[in-house]
Fold this sequence. Notes:
By secondary structure, this protein is an all-alpha fold. The protein has helices spanning 3-30, 38-66, 72-95, 99-125, 132-148, 150-160, 167-199, 206-227, 234-261, 263-269, 272-294, 298-305, 308-333, 342-370, 379-412. The relative contact order is 0.09. The model has no long low-confidence stretch (mean pLDDT 89).
Amino acid sequence: MTRLRSIHIAFLFFFLTALSGVYLRLQLFIGAEFGLEYGNLLHGHSHIAILGWTFFAVFLIFLFLTKEHTNKFVKVTIWLLLVVTVIMFIAFLIQGYALYSIIFSTLHIFLEYVVVFLIVRHVRKRKRKIPKSSRLFMYGAVIMLVISTVGPFALGGIASQGLRDSPIFDMAIYFYLHFQYNGWLYFMLIGMFLWMLAKKQIAFSETKMRLSFWVYFFSLFPSFFLSILWYGFGTYGTVLATIGALGLLTGVILFLWAMLEVNNKLRTLFPRIILYLLYLVLLLVGVKGLMELGLLYRPFGELIYDTRSVVIGYLHLTLLGFVTIFILVQFFYVEILPPVNTFFTFSIGLFLIGFIINELVLFFAALFSWLHLGALPGQNLLLLFASFSLLIAVSCLWYLSTSYFEKVKLYKS
């Protein structure tokens, strides 16, 4: 598996995520009778975003850092991930949650276990070269990835008992999502970033980073109750959710504090636009922590749980904002993205325009609903514009990345 092919796979998943997002927005104008069923499309979009784009992109960054992408076992794993993920995506589009989509999403879980094995093996092999805090975050990531897979396995058992419309079915979904983006993706991206800093001899506070990890790690378990407070677990549930929310925010603050201490050194590592993207990542992870803390106020929490646009806005803030922008920063470091030029700046700018408009519209739509002002004027058209902006931006970044690698390959030959 060449570097270029693996990059094509990552951007294919990113493109399919953006394209299905555009189709979701278009259906509000053209109607479902002109295409796929909305629910199936939504399932396909969410699965290709998490199991396709974010999962594969994070794995690819790790492979580029370790230079293990040419390993035969890794090559087979990448091809299997491509085949399983694409078939899973198509199955969800055609039939939603049914036989073939369940089979291939289950196969994907077993491939995730293979990736866990590869990450642990290669981190242990480079034990002396990787800072302890970085290893902690990456080990924590794979633990959370394995824990998250309990959710999808539980869904099958719950559905088989005829409880698909019950609260416990939704809880299993939230369990999976919680340990995916708050656990696996958060830990792995930070762990790899700390390794990158160490490679560039940028010394950060190991003490703060380790403390950040342990506080956040142990807070992940009680913080799951934040996602399911709507069920009404009484005082015990509220206490656990409070401990979890405060712990997550404390862990984030410690991480941000350590990053603030090396801010001057970060300026020498990245060009201005990448540095601004990194600052945006740090801002978004802080905002995310504050939003989760706000769920503890019961009336506000119930209002959020009952407002679909806020839930979607939060998920996009996390996955499209914090996770994806952090991935793009690290893509630049490992040279998946080319050196900064005008077209690169345009592509990133277009992506940020789409992301910001998407978030503003979703949250303002919720505000209009809460204030009983009706629908936000032009919200569907604005969301469609945002989704098209993101699709074009992803296409531009794909072209930039692959054309850059073609030039490098030609130059070296």
